[in-house]
Design goal:
Blueprint: H1 8-15, H2 19-28, H3 32-42, H4 46-51, E1 91-101, E2 109-122, H5 123-128, E3 136-140, E4 155-159, E5 170-175, E6 178-187, E7 191-195, E8 205-207, H6 209-214, E9 217-227
Antiparallel strand pairs: 1-2, 3-4, 4-9, 5-6, 5-9, 6-7, 7-8
Helix pairs in contact: 1-2
């Protein structure tokens, strides 16, 4: 900060964190997930920023950003945490939805919020997507209908405050107690068309407004984020 003539407020704005979070970093050190972005945005080496010592390899350049023609963007490195790791001031917990069988052997399920599964999200990430933290939930994708974009086991973030269907957008659905993730299109008289990425094995499904009621088909919210492990 002294070398570049920056104030704490300017650094917090550059790193897109709150002043209180930056103050915590001053006292406790940078968390692993923040080191890359801090090095990239402040034009310093990651090794020096982590240890205060020159890089033993002799390199002093800041990290190289992704190529200009890439369509990917870095949201930040991974950080290991568990239920005992306290939240940063700019983070919130987002719960998962899950399918729960009502009674043994009945095959009847309902969609409920899990009291154990949850993910940490940055408040800034949610604000960028115009998602209220209280409306955010996560859903695990099951099956191959959304491959290759969303393989089995992928996780999506869902904005429950956004249930008005925009053609071609991805939404989470409660289909009679089954959690589903589909691309939706509106049909006349309030009906919906459900589309999968894997259309060879999973052709479009069409429901009138009456059929949606009969099949207990409810739009839970728009997908605003997803994560895939390969």
């Amino acid at each position: 900060m002294a070398e570049q003539g920056l104030t704490a407020k300017q650094v917090a704005e550059t790193l897109e964190v709150s002043p209180q979070t930056l103050n915590n970093w001053f006292n406790r050190g940078l968390p692993a997930r923040a080191i890359y972005q801090a090095a990239l945005k402040l034009f310093v080496g990651q090794h020096w920023l982590t240890t205060g010592e020159p890089d033993p390899s002799g390199r002093s350049d800041p990290p190289v950003p992704p190529a200009a023609d890439s369509n990917a963007s870095l949201d930040g490195p991974f950080d290991v945490w568990d239920d005992d790791t306290p939240l940063e001031n700019d983070e919130v917990y987002v719960p998962f939805l899950k399918e729960v069988e009502l009674s043994a052997g009945s095959g009847r399920t309902v969609v409920e919020q899990s009291h154990k599964q949850r993910l940490r999200f940055g408040k800034m990430t949610l604000r960028r997507q115009n998602v209220q933290p209280s409306e955010a939930v996560c859903v695990t994708v099951s099956g191959n209908s959304m491959e290759p974009v969303l393989p089995n086991g992928s996780t999506v973030g869902v904005d429950q405050g956004s249930t008005s269907v925009i053609d071609g957008k991805m939404y989470a659905l409660n289909h009679g107690g089954q959690l589903r993730v589909k691309i939706l299109y509106r049909m006349p008289m309030g009906g919906l068309r459900l589309r999968s990425y894997n259309r060879e094995e999973h052709p479009d499904e069409e429901y009138t407004a009456q059929q949606m009621m009969e099949n207990e088909l409810v739009v839970l919210g728009r997908v605003f984020w997803y994560s895939v492990l390969v």
